[in-house]
Design a protein that fits this description.
about 140 residues
Length: about 140
C-alpha cells in the first residue's frame, strides 16, 4: 500500500459532492488526466448515491469511503454502508433495475461504475449493508 484515506459521513445527499471531491484529490499528486478525474468522480458519486438512496431508503446512517493507492498506481475505492443490503446482487447490477420505484432513478448506477472504473465488485448482506469496491489505474506520463 502506497497511501490510504478513510472518510465517514452521514448519508445525506449533500455529502456526495464532498466524497467525489475527496477521492479526486486523493490521486491528484499522480497528475491524472481530466478524464481519469472525471471517471473517478462519476463512479464515486454513483456509489455514494446508491448507499444513500438504496442502502438507507429514507433513513439515515453512516457511509464510509476508503481510498487506497497501491504501488502500481491503482486507486482502490470502497464505499461501505450498513443499510438494508442487496437481496440479489446480479439482478441489481442489471441496467435499468432499481429498488427506488416511483423515484426518478434510472437504475444505471452499477453500469456507470463499471463503465468508468477498471473493475467493480459488490458484496452485500441483507440487513447488514453493502461494500462496493472499485479500482482504477492512473496512467503515468510515459503511458500517455
Amino acid at each position: 500500500m502506497n497511501n490510504y484515506m478513510k472518510l465517514e459521513f452521514l448519508s445525506l445527499s449533500q455529502n456526495e459532492a464532498m466524497a467525489r471531491t475527496a477521492a479526486a484529490a486523493f490521486v491528484a499528486h499522480l497528475n491524472p488526466t481530466m478524464e481519469e478525474i472525471a471517471d473517478i468522480r462519476t463512479a464515486v458519486s454513483e456509489a455514494v448515491t446508491n448507499s444513500i438512496v438504496h442502502g438507507y431508503r429514507g433513513t439515515s446512517g453512516m457511509v464510509t469511503m476508503e481510498c487506497e493507492l497501491d504501488d502500481e498506481r491503482v486507486l482502490i475505492v470502497r464505499i461501505i454502508d450498513e443499510g438494508h443490503g442487496i437481496a440479489d446482487i446480479e439482478r441489481a447490477m442489471q441496467p435499468f433495475f432499481t429498488t427506488a420505484e416511483g423515484m426518478e432513478r434510472s437504475g444505471m448506477g452499477f453500469a456507470v461504475m463499471e463503465a468508468f472504473m477498471d473493475s467493480l465488485e459488490v458484496e452485500s448482506e441483507l440487513g447488514s449493508g453493502t461494500v462496493v469496491t472499485m479500482k482504477k489505474r492512473i496512467a503515468d506520463n510515459d503511458e500517455r
